[in-house]
Amino acid sequence: MRYDYLIVGAGLFGAVFASRMKEAGKTCLCIDKREHIAGNIYTEKCNDINVHKYGAHIFHTSDKRAWDYINRYAEFNNYINSPVAFYKDEIYNLPFNMNTFAQMWGVKTPEEAKRKIAEQIAELNITEPANLEEQALSLVGTDVYEKLIKGYTQKQWGRECTELPSFIIRRLPLRFTYDNNYFNDRYQGIPIGGYTAVVERMLEGTEVLTGVSYKDYCEAGMGGNEFGKIIYTGTIDEYYDYCYGRLEYRSLRFETEVMEGVENYQGNAVINYTEADIPYTRVIEHKYFEFGKQKDTVVTREYPATWKPGDEPYYPINDDRNNELYKKYAELAGGEDKIIFGGRLGQYKYYDMDKTIIESLDLADRELGL
Ligand code: UDP
Known about the structure:
Elements: E1 2-8, H1 12-23, E2 28-32, E3 43-46, E4 49-52, E5 59-61, H2 64-71, E6 84-87, E7 90-93, H3 98-105, H4 110-121, H5 132-157, E8 187-189, H6 195-202, E9 207-210, H7 214-219, E10 226-232, H8 236-239, E11 249-259, E12 270-273, E13 282-285, E14 297-306, E15 315-316, H9 320-334, E16 339-341, H10 343-346, H11 353-367
Parallel strand pairs: 1-2, 1-10, 2-9, 6-12, 10-16
Antiparallel strand pairs: 3-4, 5-8, 6-7, 11-14, 11-15, 12-13, 13-14
Bound molecules: uridine-5'-diphosphate (UDP).
């Protein structure tokens, strides 16, 4: 059988590409080494609660094209992410906003908060922040940095804040209003019924094989099939047999607990634990992504972990060394005419879901000559 595309990876990037190609009358075969579709946005029902098996995913975007696209496959609820941070015995609202500053310093007005931050950073003399620590300090001052950023970030990334790129902290809003919305985006929510069903709808009409890795598939002679091109959403360094060395990733370990008869464990979907001594970064109570009223609850503790071969890669580590290494792989990829790399792992970028959708739609358009 001849297919126009072999899509390696049934995650969001691959599924969006498949859906566009199907609409355009092209044929795709999608394979995934896991036993299920949906990649890291996979959700699974447990005690009638949709559990985000590979970490919590909250859809948010300001891009109308991404929003309109995903709404063809999903109905969103009106969830707004408002995590709470626990630091020792103190509680703070996130992201950094007037509630946080009032809790931290007892200030009431934006002017007082700004003055407090200015006082704290006056002696630091940071003009051009060179790393995450300097970026964070110059934005929110020493107290917020020490209590809410330093420990969390070091746990999350396994390295000092001085050794991390500043863009990571700029993902979070900083505002001088009493607004606990974690995102600044125009559109936000959780798909009713979970993400797996959304990806399933995107893949409708596309042949999908789960439990089949690219390597095994190649070794088995690609099942006798032929392909026009390959869309590869796995790790790019692995594809090239690590010929220039290994890219680094950050991994996660999840400990999930079903609490029967416990209706309300922590009162919020997301609680961040920002002190360095607690080994997990956040605790997710999944039911609250969908305003659940179930009699039980399911809670997941998220432990950041050093990635080693065989582990699931979750985050690219976009520091200088890795970015340089990635560039070399990207050059190799640029010389290919039959294989295209996409998604967080294929492009080694810290993409959110909306950006993943846009990248995939753009690729499909280019392939279709649009
Ligand atoms: N961060 C922090 N304290 C928090 C939450 C986040 O210092 O309580 C920092 C941390 O460096 C993290 C970054 O902000 O890696 C981005 O956080 P986000 O919630 O966007 O991370 P993700 O959900 O993608 O893991």
